[in-house]
Amino acid sequence: MLKPHLSTFLLFFLLQFSLSTVRSATLSADITALKALKAAVKPSTIPPSSCLESWDFSSDPCSLPRLTHFICGLTCSPDSSRVVSITLDSQGYSGTLTPLVSQLTQLVILDLGQNFFYGTIPPSLSSLTQLQSLSLRTNSFSGYLPSSIGNLKSLQELDLSANSLSGYLPNTLFSLSKLTRLDLSFNNFSGQLPKLPPNLQTLAIKANSLSGSISKLSFNGLTQLETLELSANSLVGVLPGWFFQLPSLQQVNMANNSLIGVEIWKPDKECSELVAVDLGFNKIEGYLPVNISEYPVLASLSLRYNRLRGPIPLEFSQKGTLKRLYLDGNYLSGTPPAGFFAVPGGVAGSFGDNCLQTCPASSQLCLPSQKPGSVCKQMYGRCAWINARRAVAVKPQARDGDENSA
After folding, report:
1. What is the reported pTM?
2. Bridge partners, residue 94, by sequence
3. What tens digit of pLDDT does each residue of 183-223 get?
4. Domain end call among 63, 92, 121
5. Coil, strand, or helix at residue 380?
6. Which of 21, 45, 246, 389 could form a disulfide with 94 if both were Cys (CB 3.0 to 4.6 A apart)?
7. If pLDDT is split at 50, 70 and 90, which confidence band does 292 have?
8. Looking at residues 274-289, what average pLDDT do you find?
């Protein structure tokens, strides 16, 4: 008969063995994929204190408790058999993304952001049909965005910003029917915008090489789009009137493109949520679009450094929600409405570097100084400029032409 202390020790050992057996059931294909993922990273870029350093395959990846091995970077399913999340720490890992990651078929989150991964995005990622969030942001991935990305039907967030990806955006993006957030900023994508996923709430593709005009086909059905960031591209043409009537649109930034015009239709004042618009540093011509002042919650507007001319509409100064107004760097003429200067600090912004007359030098809004008269004469023509100055002297609030067109 066993002694009591030996019996207790044996029972404890058997219990631990039983638990380790139950909890050491990570699918072999998942283990193979994890091994390949780590092997594709240069060992010299894996610091001692990092998550990848703790990936020691002498232990089962999903075994519990994790005291020394696999202490971070991955999450397993409740039954400890499948890997459902990989979120690597930002430690400067350098390497490629192995195609074998496709074996992690229960993966819901894949985040390798803010490291130095390079090479192409493997098309085999399309096998991860359960994936809801994919982030490869701030790495050095290059090449095309695989058209097979459209197979990720569960994807809700896709962030590939700050890489070196190039080529046209695949039409298969439209197939990502559950996608609500798409960020492809700071890459080298070119060509026109394709038809966009229908449930997008946030779209950011700034600082690329997109070209062509804004097409209704691309935005058709986007009833939930709230934030649009397309600045610093090569977009051309006229921004059409339907654009600002997308029903959920709140923030628009299309600065630093080559747009030549903008149409503003009167809004549905009960439904419009448009808060901020930045169309600065384009080539927009014509008069300031007065209809934009009718958007009920508009708080910030920038049309700086375009080719706009004529007076600043009185309606702009009467809009109580407007807190930021940047109109500098155009060819605006006449006298700015007095309402802008009635309440000190009421509106922030700039009317400087225009052709305005009698803009109060004491106001920050009138900085920097106006363009030389010779530049304004060249824009308006000598006689028209002289007549404009005379009109200001007689009727300070006179307005040129039809400011409803832009």
Report:
1. 0.88
2. 116
3. 999 999 999 999 999 999 999 999 999 999 999 999 999 99
4. 92
5. helix
6. 45
7. very high
8. 97
Considering the domain architecture, whether residues 72 and 153 belong to the same structural domain is answered as no
Stretch 3-31: mean pLDDT, rounded? 55
300 and 200 within one domain: yes
Among 15-29, 107-121, 138-152, which is the least confidently predicted range?
15-29
- Chain centre distance of CA 215: 19
Q: Examine the domain organization and report whether 149 and 185 are in the same domain.
A: yes
CB 263 within 8 A of CB 240: yes
Instruction: Work out the percent of the chain whose per-residue pLDDT is above 90.
Output: 79
Q: Within this chain, do residues 262 and 319 fall inside the same structural domain, yes or no?
A: yes
Q: What's the rounded Cα separation, in Å, for the pair 358 and 396?
A: 9
Please give the residue range of the domain that contains residue 104. Answer: 93-394
Average pLDDT of span 332-353:
90
Q: Is residue 254 part of a domain?
A: yes
Residues 82 and 220 in one domain: no
Number of domains the chain contains: 2
Hey, what amino acid is at 162? A
pLDDT digits (tens, 9 = 90+) for 126-177: 999 999 999 999 999 999 999 999 999 999 999 999 999 999 999 999 999 9
Nearest in space to 316 (alpha carbons), one of 326, 306, 308, 307: 326
Instruction: Looking at the structure, tell me whether residues 172 and 74 fall in a common domain.
Output: no
Give the pairing type, strands 227-229 and 234-239. unpaired
Model pLDDT, residue 149: 95
Residue type, 235: L
**CATH at residue 309:** 3.80.10.10
Amino acid in the structure at residue 390: R
Residues 83 and 191 grouped into a single domain: no
Name residue 378's amino acid.
Q
Helix axes 373-380 and 382-394, enclosed angle (nearest 10): 110
> Shortest CA distance to 224 belongs to which of 201, 207, 242, 205?
201
H or E stretch at 119: strand 116-119
Closest CA to 208 of 194, 193, 192, 190: 190
Give whole-number Cα distances, 60 to 29, 51, 71, 203, 266, in Å. 13, 15, 12, 40, 63
